[in-house]
Design a protein that fits this description.
Elements (H helix, E strand, L loop, with lengths): L8 E14 L2 E14 L3 E5 L6 H9 L6 E10 L2 E2 L5 H10 L1 E4 L3 H4 L6 H12 L5 H14 L5 H5 L8 H13 L5 E5 L7 H18 L2 E6 L2 H7 L2 E6 L2 E7 H6 L4 H8 L40 H5 L4 E5 L2 E4 L1 H21 L1
Parallel strand pairs: 3-8, 3-9, 6-7, 7-8
Antiparallel strand pairs: 1-2, 1-4, 4-5, 9-10, 10-12, 11-12
Pfam family, one: oligo_HPY
Subcellular location: Cell membrane
Membrane topology: Peripheral membrane protein
């Protein structure tokens, strides 16, 4: 296994736009998102269902289905333009450079093939020169690495003979068998109970340290984000409304949507009984998204400008930025105060 540590940017997404062209009209699923992921970094993408998290991930790995289409922006992986790759190049790219773990392993594993068969096939698809014996040996090593015991027996079993947690471990083994540099995990713990969820998260943290791969962890569970991620991007209605280091997002959130997500999450460290506060209203219609901030119709702090114009990003700290007119207002007031101070000195 390659343990070489690299520095710098592994993945760069710039102004990505993805739309679905349906008979009812254009659904703007992703509307101009940008972020970087460095080698060995874990980034969480958080947001409620329909915010564009999975669509953005499918665009990176080239699994976007028709009528979905990338209509603008760029995706650069290790300096290479991903969107310019041909179909054959994308097949080689998937698995060898980037892999994905899906939400429900039962729909991703073939019920009529054994676990061993599917792991060997995944490896041989990207490494044509490997013999069946060597592939079987590597498959057993990967199963051991993800914490599955009695691997020889497991190799001969079918997916339905394994528990949900075991199947998810098999999916992780399948994703990592070609040693990718980027792993995209699309809500991999949602279908599991909390005990197995904790084990899977611990496993992913250990594997990330051993292999030094980058991970994009897609979830709507902020507890999971706190456990595994270095930085977080918060998505709402196809836009990144806030980005920053995990501690800043949790302790100094800058966007009302992020604050709403945190308020609606139960806390084990609460000193007294606290009622959870849901985010009022419903998500926007992506066929007719609002002109301004997409969260404005549900925001308790919404101003007139919020409904008319999308706010720019405001830097709130080191690599922490938020797209909110409240933060723009605060910044202008701060700058005005600093100018008064300078003028007073003069």
């Amino acid at each position: 296994m390659d343990h070489t540590e690299k520095n710098g940017k592994l993945l760069e997404v710039k102004d990505l736009h993805v739309s679905f062209f349906t008979p009812a009209g254009e659904v703007k699923a992703v509307g101009g998102i940008s972020y970087d992921l460095n080698y060995g970094e874990v980034m969480g993408i958080v947001g409620e269902s329909g915010s564009g998290k999975s669509v953005e991930a499918y665009s990176i790995i080239g699994l976007l289905q028709s009528p979905g289409k990338v209509i603008g922006g760029s995706i650069t992986f290790e300096g290479e333009d991903v969107l310019a790759k041909s179909k054959e190049e994308m097949i080689a790219f998937r698995g060898s450079k980037v892999a994905m773990i899906f939400q429900n392993p039962m729909t991703c594993l073939n019920p009529v093939y054994t676990i061993g068969n599917q792991l060997i096939e995944a490896l041989k698809a990207h490494d044509k020169g490997v013999s069946k014996e060597a592939a079987a040996k590597r498959a057993m090593e990967m199963l051991e690495l993800v914490g599955i015991n009695n691997v020889e027996k497991r190799m001969k079993q079918y997916p339905h003979e394994l528990s949900g947690g075991m199947r998810q471990r098999v999916m992780i083994a399948m994703g990592l068998i070609c040693h990718p540099q980027l792993l995209i995990a699309d809500e991999p713990t949602t279908a599991l109970d909390v005990t197995i969820q904790a084990q899977i998260l611990e496993l992913m943290k250990d594997l990330q340290k051993k292999t030094h791969m980058g991970i994009i962890f897609i979830t709507h569970n902020l507890g999971v984000v706190a456990e595994i991620c270095d930085k977080v991007s918060v998505m709402y209605a196809g836009k990144m409304v806030e980005q920053g280091p995990v501690d800043d997002i949790f302790y100094q959130p800058g966007h009302p949507y992020t604050m709403g997500l945190l308020r609606s999450m139960p806390r084990v460290d609460a000193e007294s009984y606290e009622r959870l506060i849901p985010i009022e209203g419903t998500p926007v219609d992506m066929l007719n998204p609002p002109e301004g901030c997409p969260f404005a119709p549900r925001c308790e702090h919404a101003m007139k400008i919020c409904l008319q114009k999308m706010p720019p990003y405001v830097e709130l700290g080191n690599q922490h930025r938020s797209a909110c007119w409240l933060r723009v207002q605060e910044q202008l007031e701060r700058e005005k105060g600093e100018k008064k101070e300078v003028d007073g000195r003069e």
